[in-house]
Each structure stands twice: as structure tokens, then as C-alpha cells.
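Justification of resources, computational component.

The compute hours requested in this renewal are based largely on the per-chain cost of generating structure records like the one below. Each record pairs the submitted sequence with a full C-alpha cell output. That output is archived, and it is also reused by downstream analysis tasks.
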Amino acid sequence: IGAAKLIVVVAIFLLTFYVISQVFEIKMDANLGHIFARSALDAAARSTKPPRYKCGISKACPEKHFAFKMASGAANVVGPKICVEDNILMSGVKNNVGRGINVALVNGKTGEPLDTKFFDMWGGDVAPFIEFLKSIQDGTIVLMGTYDDGATKLNEEARKLIAELGSTSITNLGFRDNWVFCGGKGIKTKSPFEQHIKNNKDTNKYEGWPEVVEMEGCIPQKQD
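The structure output for this chain reads:
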């Protein structure tokens, strides 16, 4: 009888062990399956998420080029924004923009910011702007964007100095036009980086102002 009891006890123990081991294996398999599935989903999410490039531009710049993105002001409400190499140089958030023409200067060899200023071309004086334009050193990248009105006080001398930086639209810039431009001091050709929308009551997006103009691109590094 004792031997029979022992066999029953051993059989129950083995059966219990078997059942427990099966349950744990199933749970382990399920957990491993969940882990692998989650890893696959994470990998898929990473592969489908678009890469982010400097300043949020749409594609990477080649070597020896500086990424930039900029936007003019929106009416007289939202200021312009200028970004170079992932550095926000001017924006309403930075509180360094103002009515008129906003200007950021960048070292053409290193991409380092040099200066930011704005000049009121509605109620201000064009003379300080002209002096500033004359003081820009050769090899400097110059980025400009309008806010509210950037043209009323512009005179021929100021327009000529900006044209020498590579602008073609500056001669036609009028009252409350929106304009963004990227050129350089000592540039030998006209800049390909310029956008201009005329103030036109029939087509304006905002009452009294045209829509915002945006522009992005890759500025060639200045070579010795």
C-alpha cells in the first residue's frame, strides 16, 4: 500500500510540475512574442519617421554648405524668422525683430552668427541702415526679411547697396510687400535665394498685407 501511495504522490507531483511548466512556457512565449512584436513596431516607427534636417528644411545640405530657413513677417502681427545651421537668429520669440527690414549677418566661412538688427522703414530714418550696409565685411552672408512695411523709407542708395549683395527684387520692393532674401557681401552673381510678394488688395491674404513668404536652402561655404 505504501508503495502505491508513493507512486500516486510522485505521479501527482510530476503532473503538477508538467502543468506548471507548460503554463510558464506559454506565458514566457507570449511575453517574448510581445517583446519582439513591440521591437518590430518601434523599428518600423523609426524607419517611417522622416529624418529632421537643420532648421527643419526638407532635405540635407551637401558638405561645405550652410542650411537656412526664413520667413517674412505676417502682416503687423507675427515677426519674421531667420534660422541658419539650426540656430534661430531672429524671431518674435527671441524678441529681436521689428517693423521694417530685419537683417542677420553670418560668417561665410564658419557659419557663425555675427550680428542681428532691424531698421524701421516706415517711421525711421534710412541713414543708419545705409551706414550698416556699408560696414558689412566681404565674405559675410546677409539674410533679410520684411515685417509690416520694409520699403517706404528706402532710397536709391539703400536699394543699390542691397542689390550689390545679390538682390534683384529690391528695386521693386514697395509699401507692405513681403520679401525675404539671402545674399552676400562681395558676391559676383545674383543670388538664387529671394522671394517677393507684392502688396495687392485683390490678392492679399491679410487685410492690407500679402501672405507670408518662406524660403529655405543651402548656402555655399566661402572658400579661400
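The chain has two domains: 1-45, 54-220. Residues 14 and 102 are 83 Å apart (CA to CA).
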